[in-house]
Design goal:
By secondary structure, this protein is an alpha+beta fold. It has one domain (4-153): Protein Transport Mog1p, Chain A. It has helices at 4-19, 26-47, 94-106; strands spanning 50-58, 74-81, 84-91, 110-118, 121-127, 131-139, 145-153. Strands 1-2-3-7-6-5-4 form a 7-stranded antiparallel β-sheet, sandwiched between helices. The two termini are 20 Å apart.
């Protein structure tokens, strides 16, 4: 049985937890690692999804496709399950975040869709013979940029 629905729910939960900024006071910071590890373990046990919920510098999953270029920045969230990957990366600026689009084109991907969400956010979809890569780029209020990658295999 495929676990796609739980995986999507897990990914949404992880992004919400990571980007919410809920860990601001010292008591919460003290317990953050314990809670974070517990949440990751529960999600992984229940869904089989490899999750990293760490807003302070998570890393891409070891199985992240090597031919999918990613921008330089701070990985805030990542997950992998059944050849589906996602990650949220904070870049130093919106211009740096938009380099995600150029990097995929330079790597030989073809852009197949584009959606302008607002003046400060856009989404583009790219494909090669193996992967569909959806990239959402948005400006943060502090001038940094946010990039959300979602990678799914091309089914033949």
């Amino acid at each position: 049985m495929r676990r796609t629905a739980p995986a999507i729910a897990v990914l949404s939960l992880g992004v919400a937890l990571t980007l919410s900024g809920c860990f601001a006071n010292p008591l919460e910071q003290l317990t953050e690692g314990i809670v974070e590890g517990g949440v990751e373990q529960i999600i992984e046990d229940q869904t089989g999804v490899d999750v990293d919920v760490d807003g302070t510098g998570a890393s891409l999953p070891d199985s992240w496709p090597a031919d999918v270029p990613t921008i330089d920045g701070t990985v805030q969230f990542s997950a992998a399950t059944q050849d589906i990957y996602t990650a949220a990366i904070e870049a130093s600026s919106i211009a740096a975040a938009e380099e995600a689009y150029t990097a995929l084109l330079d790597a030989g991907y073809t852009q197949v869709a584009e959606f302008q969400v607002s003046d400060d956010a856009s989404s583009r979809t790219f494909e090669n013979s193996m992967w569909t890569v959806n990239v959402v780029v948005a400006a943060n209020a502090d001038g940094t940029g946010q990039v959300q990658y979602t990678i799914t295999p091309i089914t033949q």
